[in-house]
User: Fold these one by one.
Assistant:
Number 1:
Amino acid sequence: MQVLFQSSSESPSSRGLGIIPCPIDRFDDTEKSVPHMGWNSSDLLNSQTDSLGMEELSYYYFVHSYCAKYMPEIYPDAVQWAHTTTQYGQELFISSVRKDNIFGTQFHPEKSGTAGLNLLDAWLRKSQPDRPSTPPSSHTFRSPKPKHNLTKRIIACMDVRANDEGNLVVTKGDQYDVRENSAPSSEQSAVTTGAVRNLGKPVSLAARYYSSGADELCLLNITSFRHSPLQDQPMLAVVRAAAKCVFVPLTIGGGIKETVDPDGTKRSALEVAGAYFRAGADKVSIGSEAVYAVENMRSTGKGDGTSAIERIAHVYGRQAVVVSIDPRRVYVDPEIYNGPYKDEVVRGRADAVDSERVKAWWYQCTVSGGRESRPVSVVQLARGAETLGAGEILLNSIDRDGTGLGFDLELVGLVRRSVKIPVVASSGAGKKEDFVEVFERGGVEAALAAGIFHREEVGIGEVKGALRAAGINVRN
Ligand code: 1PR
């Protein structure tokens, strides 16, 4: 859609087609996260033209940092093209354009669930373009509303690995340990001590989460620290199959790094990410490589353009690059600790579980699924990743993973205050109220859970019901 416009501050030296006389500009990030990422509503401007299946109460999936601002006084000819507008923060922008047989959307209909599929269907069924349009006399000019409709996102995450029989399964650990450690009970006769926990098949679980209302899905290859050549990458087939039945965004993580094929061919991280994007991924999530890149940037003072984050963001846009952080607490005595992370030390809340109440700690980043700790704090990693070009932070917590104790609110708050890009809180969800708490107290854009959804202890619908009851905007 944006190429129809005159120019873009994303690439000032390149001209657009100039068919719509108005520039594309970046969102203002003073008071909101940028990219604008998630489900937002679109207001129809001209009720007399065919709405193409778009309804006022429908939500569509957006992921972008630049937009055509809706400015009728300055660009009156451009706003005649506006089919819908959408509001983010106090900024109103053109979210779809329509004239004669031209139609373009800023959002992604192919990733907007049923609402998007209805729109595509209506468009494909149109045998004739509308009559050549004269500017509609009924064009109602809009002004920003007090509040935008961007919803909070609920993400279902599947940690994927091969089990001991070599089958790819969705697994789930406690503090990243995904093997059973208890003797099999009579009801669980199939469970062997030490076996990889098997909670289902990735594609069928993905389909289940799509139909139960997940706003996004995340598939993580958790054994990617092993040698995993692109040529022989079973996750690609999983992504391809999932993308055929899931019409909400898919984030793929694990192993987004340089790999070597069995014949010795080197594949750059950009090639690996490209293979996932072509298979149907919308975002790639980078873990260990992000830690190394930030360590490197901190020692030289700036990014050198060679990291996976920089390269992938340059080619596919920063909104396609998620950095997944695996922090672990390092407990300290706050009265005597005078180390480099003293400004990042947090204390257990008065209402915290017993084991945390009187303690203090900082968060250290790890690589290889928590197997190795690195000399980088969570704040340094989040800020460094943002500087290098990440568009979103997926914030795990090794201490809370699989515990059901609720999200780590100290961790979430620390990272939310440190960056401008959206933050996804992950690890520890045990009940629907935990989601209400993390949105109300953590200020994050999205919350992710795995175990409670896999074990069907809490449904996505139930979570959304609790959020709605608490006055938090979610997609139906
Ligand atoms: O380092 O770029 O190859 O990426 C590896 C990816 O795999 C990282 O995103 C890392 O977080 C993930 N990973 C590695 N090992 C594990 C493991 O569990 N042994 N999974 C792992 C991380 C965390 C979340 C989990 C939430 C929610 N899993 O994905 O789903 O903690 O769980 P809960 O709701 O049950 O508490 P690279």
Note: Residues 157, 159, 172-173, 176, 178, 220, 222, 224-225, 253-256, 285-289, 324, 326, 369, 396, 401-402, 426-429, 449-451 surround 1PR (CB under 6 Å).
Number 2:
Amino acid sequence: MKRKNNVLGARKEDILADLPVVKNEEYIADVIGIGHDGEGVGRVNGFTLFIPGALPGEKVRVKALKLKKQYGYAKLLQVLEASPDRVDAPCPIYKQCGGCQLQHLSYGAQLRWKRQLVVDSLERIGKLQVASGDAGDAGDGSNEGRQGIVVHSTLGMSDPWRYRNKAQVPIGLAMEGGLVGGFYAQGSHRIIDMEACLIQHENNDAVVTAVKRIARELGIRPYDEESSKGLLRHVIARYGFNTGEIMVVLVTNGKEIARADELVGLIREAIPGVRSICQNVNRERTNVIFGDTTKVLWGSDVIYDTIGDVRFAISARSFYQVNPVQTEVLYRKALDFAGLSGEETVIDAYCGIGTISLFLAQRAGQVYGVEIVPEAIEDARRNALLNGVNNVQFEVGGAEVVIPAWKRQGIAPDVIVVDPPRKGCDAALLETILEMRPARVVYVSCNASTLARDLRVLEDGGYRTVEVQPVDMFPHTVHVESVALLVRNITH
Ligand code: SAH
């Protein structure tokens, strides 16, 4: 018989028997922090319990659920002493949906928490010294004489609702039959119908609602995951905030849509601003939304949007930042930190569709962008042409492979900008940055832990982190975005 042993040879049940908390029992917990998924981190008899819905500073009554050796999970039964930062979540489906994690925390407190998460990561993971106090959001790069890294207040939105420019809504068969579209009930694949999402632009809600109504009227069958029968799998709505252009994409389990002309006519009638109606075919049994083929049912294959002065073409499958208002704030900050005069050579690593590259190109001599997804580089080149930008060159490949090759070709950047995915920069890339010795490194990060880890490597290699600016790209969620400025030490 296979037994789960710990180092001392004790059985799992014995370990749990020794815990100061017993499964299914009720306790009073003191909440001391917020965990990675927005859950309260509580303490009971010195033991850590993760409590969804609880906030730091609160005293709560909970029921212990799943227990492990070092920590456990508990259900919030009652808030005995509420945090002054607790608010009523405005969304009626907040608890069922799981798309937002922080709606029960006031927006000001969310912004403070996001800054603190960056500070804690820099100190604990990066072993970096952070200047004391909240440095405000001056962000002029001048922290001469200060001890440690200046971490500014999180730049938040004046209206932190309805900020998303893209909705991707799964469609399914209701238990009682009929078509529903909305979100997956937490921890399941059951689709709950939804008419309004408070972080989604109103236009996207209206588009999805209209398409669902039309699909019902035309008798289009919803896709059923169980049997993989039925046609309509997902409705995607994209909205150009600065142009008003709308794209609708129908993801179907099959090439043919019966009465497609009628469908297009009804969508055009219901959605006056629509510029593009596309169909993407996905016949795989998969959670991946898009299949390989996309065709235009009506209108253009792209819609346009602008960030600052830069214009972007967005196709059905293009990556494009989902919060355009804060994207501009983030990129302006990155541009600021790059400190360009018009002459510099700049590398944009992990460049996606070239958004940051095109921003930088306006003030640089030459920009080189590298990205691993070939389609994104196609978009980047198209966007450069669209904007008449000719001082930027894009290459497909791993940043950790292409940038060393550029080094061998004699490219010597004054500034390197990196914007890696959650896992952070590849070690080989960090090494190349240290060898290339740019005067500045601007690090855009969506994960404070890997940011801190990578800053440590750059600091050890001769750079100093001057300041970090958190920017709230995803209000009411636990995602924390920030941009850091590093300069090369004069002595190195
Ligand atoms: N800077 C862009 C995209 C950032 S997202 C923007 O602001 O829009 C991170 C990007 O890194 C993704 O496009 C992903 O495809 C790309 N990527 C992931 N691993 C990579 C690697 N090893 N080398 C280059 N790009 C990579």
Note: The longest helix spans residues 107-124.
